[in-house]
Amino acid sequence: MNVTLTENGHSQPHKNEDLPQKSSVEHEEYVEECNLEQITENNITNVNEKEVKLLEKILDRDNMNKAYKRVKSNKGAQGVDGMRVDELLQYLKLYGASVRQSIMEGKYKPNPVRRVEIPKEGGKTRPLGIPTVVDRVIQQSISQVLSPIYEEQFSDNSFGFRPNRSAHDAIKKCREIIDLGYHYVIDMDLEKFFDTVNQSKLIEVLGRTIKDGRVISLIHKYLRAGVVIKHSFKDTSEGVPQGGNLSPLLSNIMLNELDKELSRRRHQYVRYADDLMIFFKSKRAAERTLLSITRFIETKLFLKVNKEKTVVDEVWNVKFLGFSFYQREGKTRIKIHPKSTAKMKAKIKELTSRSNGWGNAKRIVKLKLYIRGWVNYFKIADIKGLCRDTDGWMRRRIRAIYWKQWKHARTRLKMLNRLGWDKQVAWKYANARGKTWYVSNNRFLNIALNNNMLRGMGYLFFSDYYQHSIGVN
Question: Which residues contact 9 (CB under 8 A, 6 or more apart)?
Answer without folding.
Answer: 92, 93, 94, 95, 96, 97, 98, 99
